[in-house]
Amino acid sequence: MNPNLKIAIQGGPASFHDVVAQQYFAPQTIDIIPCMTFQRVFALVKNGEADFGVIAIENYLAGSILGNYTLLHDYPVSIVGEAYLPIEQNLLALPGQTLEDIRIVRSHPMALLQCTNFLEEHSYMQAIESADTAESAREIRENNLSGVAAIASRAAAALYGLDIVEECIENYKENYTRFMVISGKPLKDVSGANKASVNFQLHHRAGELANILDVFRELHINLSLIQSIPIISDPNEFTILLDLEWEDYNEFTAAIEKIRPMVVEIKILGIYKRGVK
């Protein structure tokens, strides 16, 4: 019998990363490896202790997670898949607690950012950052914390026996998070791939970025994201991240070869199939 795939995720059971992993790899049975940090996810994939990792990369409301783009550049891993998850944020607390009882709200920083309107309307609640949404819920249950709530999913409420004190507290209902699936090896078969994430560093010359974008335009490559990423070791330098989409894979490879001599460094972070929102 084949062993289950080992999937490293940031957070624990019933976290949004867990939901994405279960959906993405279905119907395969998987073993989740919870990690407190994204860097730990990357380390497990790099060392072969996990077959794949699942990482959030961008939220519609809160924006990009720049630190994960840096990790994608620095670690010898490849993006092999993409998934989008609609995000519904709920306020969870011990059974019997009311909205007026809550004085502290704990959750992951990205979740707190997605619920700033609610937190502003209830300014008597103190928002405290934690490592994970679902883990915040678990800590409330295990430590029997009165007056403390977590912002997390319905799955976390069910798993840890908490009440949903207030549902759907995200700022906007059209809220989704984009996730990347990473592996220690690039995707073997790129015949079905239609998207890539590419990171490069420019020469310090006027118009360099415009010249590169012209190459992609001429070869019919769609640009779905452009993001500047600071280089931590040199605050005066940065790299450019582009998400590229195409109909013809050969046009993508032609574009990459054309821009190679135009940049200081180029790294293809992954070639994969575009996720469905």
Structure description:
It contains nine helices and 15 strands. With about 280 residues, the chain is an alpha/beta fold. The chain has three domains: about 90 residues, D-Maltodextrin-Binding Protein, domain 2; about 80 residues, Periplasmic binding protein-like II (D-Maltodextrin-Binding Protein, domain 2), CATH 3.40.190; about 80 residues, Alpha-Beta Plaits. The protein is globular.
Topology:
Elements: E1 5-10, H1 16-25, E2 30-35, H2 38-46, E3 52-59, E4 63-64, H3 66-74, E5 78-86, E6 90-93, E7 104-107, H4 109-113, H5 116-121, E8 126-129, H6 133-143, E9 148-152, H7 154-160, E10 163-166, E11 176-183, E12 195-201, H8 208-218, E13 222-231, E14 234-245, H9 249-259, E15 265-272
Parallel strand pairs: 1-2, 1-3, 7-8, 7-9
Antiparallel strand pairs: 3-4, 3-11, 5-11, 6-9, 6-10, 12-14, 12-15, 13-14
The total of helices stands at 9
CATH architecture of the largest domain: 3-Layer(aba) Sandwich
Going by helix content, strand content and strand pairing, the class is alpha/beta
Counting DSSP E segments of at least 2 residues, the number of strands comes to: 15
Which range best describes the helical content: under 10%, 10-25%, 25-40%, 40-55%, 55-70% or over 70%?
25-40%
State the CATH superfamily name of the largest domain.
Answer: Periplasmic binding protein-like II
**Which spans have pLDDT < 50 for at least 5 consecutive residues?**
none
Q: Mind describing the biggest β-sheet? A: 6 strands, mixed
Alpha carbon gyration radius: 21 Å
pLDDT average, as an integer? 93
Task: Work out the strand percent.
Answer: 35-45%
How many structural domains are formed by the residues?
3
